[in-house]
Amino acid sequence: MTGSPASVLAADVSTGACSQSTIYVTATSAVTVTVTPGAASSSSAAAPGSLYAAGGSSYAAGGSSYAASSSAVSYDYAPPSSSSDVAAEAYTSLTTFYGAQYPHSASSSAVAAVPSAAPSSLSALAYTPPAGYSYPAAVSSSGSTTSSTITSPTPAAYTSAAPVSSSAAYSSSAAASSAAPVSPSNGKRGVAYNDASLTSCFEGNSKITWGYNWGQTSAGLPSAFEYVPMLWGMGDIFISGWEANWKAALTAGSTAFLCFNEPDLSTQSNLSPTAAAAGYLTHMQPIKVAQSSVRLGSPAVTNGANGMGIDWLVAFQSACTGCDIDFVAVHWYESATNIQYFKDHITEAHTRTGKPVWVTEFGASGSDAEISAFLEDVLPWMDSQGFVERYSYFMVSNGLLVSGGSPSSYGNTYATV
User: Fold this and answer.
1) How far apart are CA 79 and CA 64, in angstroms?
2) From CA 270, how far away is CA 178, in angstroms rounded?
3) What are the CA-CA distances from residue 274 to residues 115, 215, 318 (Å)?
4) Taking a C-beta distance cutoff of 8 angstroms, is the pair 237, 86 a contact?
5) DSSP assignment, residue 48?
6) What is the 8-class DSSP label of residue 212?
7) Please, is 110 exposed, middle or buried when counting C-beta atoms within 10 Å of its C-beta (0-12, 13-18, 19+)?
8) Do 24 and 60 meet the contact criterion of CB atoms below 8 Å apart?
9) Is pTM beyond 0.90 here?
10) What is the Cβ-side half-sphere exposure of residue 386, based on CA atoms within 13 angstroms?
């Protein structure tokens, strides 16, 4: 940081068995954050300099930033000026946080460029939702419909292995994999988490079999859940350790891999279909070459319309010739009362792509009772659909699926219905 020293707050945060702490960092200029772990438990330990700073719409490390995607296959990222600058990533939320709603309407065959977003500060979630949109209520016992601001959860500390040179782009003669669909012995449900200790609230539940944290290492996920790694984006901080991490994950027993979080949204991984296809061939296809039985997922798209969402996904499929794509990953955020739209959207993802579907993020806005009613309807529906392989509700965090040391009211619904 240049100029006069700014006020700095140091905090010692300990993570309990089923609780989490939140630290808010607000900056008005580029900042480097160094995190030195103290006596943390194995489930929460992180390497120094690996913390992401939530909020904002661009990377701050070394001034590298995302620009709106174009149709060009090549996609450039400004490298950090030094390795120390990578200590803090201005990393937009790992999800849309319910508030970052995207327009949705009837499907369109036209594919537009990834929408750009105005720059924002590095403080928590600088986004104004559309008129009339209400953030989902925090967990309450009253059951009344209330509005509350969903604060960006601090992403799980990112552990990067020593950089490993990626080999040249791989290709496969078959676009469709011969691998058998994933068939969890007891359930399709997963836990989307940042703090792995919170997942213990759902441990031992036969309906919940897997988990992911938008990262490449499990950060202490209990062995009761299968861990699914994710290559979140195409920035150097993601791809530098990816090869070493996916190889380690295969050794540890991971059978599926995810990639590119919401590439159709400029504040997320922000990639055009052709850029994502090039990245997929280079960084995802080698996993299939190494182990043919592994299952690879498409980039995870929003439920936006007019070139976003499923439109983007179909364009990606067309661009990714020679790619083994075993399933498509989709997200959905809307009102808890719009159940038919949810079912129609998930079905459309399957019919338009011809692939099984993983719903890796979905969230409903409304009262606790409304969210529970939504889950009581859609969970059995997804369990009964052969084309829906896996799904995970957003997310295992206090105020959402967790309340204190136990599942919240609708967290209990997620665990039991």
Assistant:
1) 6
2) 30
3) 15, 23, 9
4) yes
5) T
6) E
7) exposed
8) no
9) no
10) 3
Contact partners, residue 7, CB within 8 Å, separation at least 6? none
In angstroms, what CA-CA distances link 253 with 26, 87, 249, 257, 331?
39, 30, 6, 11, 26
One-letter amino acid for residue 269 of the chain: S
**Degrees, nearest 5: CA angle 149-152-157:** 160
Which two three-digit tokens encode residue 17? 């068995």
C-alpha span between 185 and 163 (Å, rounded): 36
DSSP 106: S
Determine how β-strand 230-231 pairs with β-strand 256-261. Answer: parallel
Amino acid residing at 1: M
Domain that holds residue 234: 1-417
Total domains in the fold of the chain:
1
Which residue in the block uniquely carries the two structure tokens 């490298």?
A: 79
Give tens-digit pLDDT for 190-238.
999 999 999 999 999 999 999 999 999 999 999 999 999 999 999 999 9
Please report, for residues 37, 86, 309, the alpha-carbon distance to residue 11 in angstroms, rounded to integers and kept in the order given. 11, 21, 40
320-379 pLDDT, tens digit each: 999 999 999 999 999 999 999 999 999 999 999 999 999 999 999 999 999 999 999 999
Can you list the alpha helix ranges (DSSP code H) found in 151-256?
236-239, 242-252
Report pLDDT for 303: 98
Residue 108 near residue 306 (C-beta atoms within 8 A): yes
Residue entry with tokens 């509350």: 148
Residue 1 exposed, middle or buried by CB count within 10 Å (0-12, 13-18, 19+): exposed
Q: What is the DSSP string of 315-346?
A: HHHHH-TT----EEEEEEEEETT-HHHHHHHH
